[in-house]
Design goal:
The complex is a heterodimer of chains A (224) and B (226). Chain A has 224 residues and is mainly α. Chain A contains six helices and no strands. Chain B has 226 residues and is mostly helical. Chain B has ten helices and no strands. Classes of the chains: A mainly alpha (224), B mainly alpha (226). The A-B interface holds A 67, 115, 119, 122-123, 125-126, 129-130, 132-135, 139, 142-143, 145-147, 149-151, 153-154, 157-158, 160-162, 164 and B 149, 152, 156-157, 159-163, 166, 169-170, 172-174, 176-177, 180-181, 184, 200, 204, 207-208, 211-212, 215, 219, 222-223, 225.
Chain lengths: 224, 226
């Protein structure tokens, strides 16, 4: 499998990139005037959010392809990505909460982006609950694909519905000059690093899933 | 039989089943009544705050009784081993789905209207009955949204382990926009605001219904292939 060929260089480059990213975030990036050091959590928060959206998009696309081609490979792709998506969205909610306490003075606000992320998190937790209850591989793959597709398509509707409440979430392109150029560069660097990390984790999770599946097949064959 | 004929046949089957056993409707009815009582005891309600809390209480009850009822309907089918016969019956998956959406919609509507009535009695709030014509569009669209999503998901959870418990986990997050739309438009109408203000919520409900109806029609056939 050529997966391993990608995994190793990715791992080696992340070995350099992740410490560099941390250095940039904590040492190079200027301290934000109003928020202070706590603003540095943005570099993680935003990168994690983008990575989790990437993961959920993968679940969505893999789900469609599975229903179309009926190849279990795509189901493995989908649930590997879903697991990373759940992990990262959990971290997004936690980092956001840590930031919100000193800045908004609350741990949680009912803002569209927060609610959307939370709903998405709930749907994909449900995705795994459902998977655990089905033993037939084909059926599990079909049902998960349906949940993955519906869950993903729910995002814009939830977003729109919650938007008509007041929105307090800061936007990257704020009025006037926007983000400081150094901050922006570090933000982009951080995003790229996290996306690479996501791909790495995903490949790793995928190869574990394949090993698990092979093990089940082999055990069955031994039993027969 | 034609497409519409098939749909009607499925709906009729569900209705006659319900008329004979009254399993889902009675469950939903007593659950909604019980929830009304619990809300009344749990919240300190008086003449002033009833109007502002009504929409929230009612839509939570609608969502919960709805998901319980739809789960019950499809579970009954599995318990009686009717599930496979329906899947193998010579109707297209689309007509099967639409037929079930219609019957679920009708059951939910019956329960919602009765809940509104009992709300008026138990909370001493006749205004909710008087403003029923204004509430009807959001009620109809919201209920359609519930049944469109609920029918799809109840099929999905019927054949899996612990399906009855998992169904609310899948259903409730997805219908968040319906609950938001229903609560917001009801709040506006009960506050005596003109109908135009609740229009955007009606729109979002309509968009939700249309979108999920299309997706469900596309996806439903993958659920019943065995």
């Amino acid at each position: 499998m050529n997966m391993r060929k990608i995994q190793m260089p990715l791992f080696l480059s992340l070995l350099v990139l992740i410490p560099l990213d941390f250095y940039l975030i904590f040492k190079v990036a200027p301290t934000e005037r109003v928020m202070g050091d706590v603003q540095r959590i943005f570099y993680f928060h935003v990168s994690l959010a983008i990575s989790s959206y990437l993961a959920f998009t993968t679940v969505f696309i893999a789900g469609i392809i599975y229903l179309w081609r009926k190849n279990l490979f795509w189901d493995t792709i989908a649930y590997s990505a879903a697991e990373i998506g759940v992990l990262f969205s959990t971290l997004v909610l936690i980092t956001g909460s840590i930031w919100a306490r000193p800045i908004w003075n609350v741990w949680w606000a009912w803002d569209p982006r927060l609610v959307t992320m939370l709903i998405l998190w709930f749907i994909f937790v449900g995705y795994f609950l459902l998977r655990n209850g089905i033993s037939d591989w084909g059926k599990r793959a079909r049902y998960s694909a349906v949940i993955g597709i519906i869950g993903f398509l729910d995002i814009p509707v939830v977003r729109l519905a919650t938007k008509w409440w007041r929105s307090v979430h800061p936007r990257l392109k704020s009025e006037g000059g926007g983000l400081d150029p150094v901050m922006l560069k570090i933000m982009l660097f951080s995003m790229a690093t996290f996306l690479m990390f996501t791909v790495f984790l995903f490949l790793y999770r995928y190869s574990i899933a394949r090993a698990e599946e092979n093990l089940i097949v082999l055990t069955k064959r031994l039993e027969d | 039989m034609t497409f519409a004929g098939n749909i009607l046949a499925i709906t009729k089957k569900d209705i006659s089943l319900e008329l004979r056993g009254k399993e889902s409707l009675s469950l939903m009815f007593f659950l909604s009544l019980l929830l009304l009582v619990i809300f009344n005891l749990a919240l300190d309600m008086d003449n002033e705050n009833t109007a502002s809390l009504a929409a929230g209480i009612l839509w939570v009850i609608f969502a919960f009784t709805g998901v319980m009822g739809m789960g019950r309907t499809s579970m009954a089918e599995r318990d009686e081993d009717a599930y496979l016969s329906i899947v193998f019956s010579p109707v297209s998956s689309e007509s099967l789905y639409i037929g079930k959406v219609i019957s679920n919609f009708l059951f939910l509507m019956i329960i919602e209207i009765s809940t509104l009535f009992f709300f008026a009695v138990l909370f001493d709030f006749e205004k909710i009955i008087i403003s029923l014509p204004g509430l009807l569009p959001s009620l109809l669209l919201g209920t359609l949204g519930f049944s469109v999503v609920g029918t799809l998901f109840s099929f999905l959870t019927t054949t899996s382990k612990h399906g009855e418990i998992i169904l609310p986990f899948l259903f409730l997050p997805v219908v968040v926009p319906v609950v938001l739309g229903g609560v917001s438009s009801m709040n506006l109408i009960l506050a005596g605001r003109p109908v135009e203000e609740s229009m955007k919520w009606i729109q979002i409900l309509a968009v939700f219904d249309f979108m999920y109806l299309c997706i469900s029609l596309l996806l439903f056939k993958y659920l019943i292939e065995e």
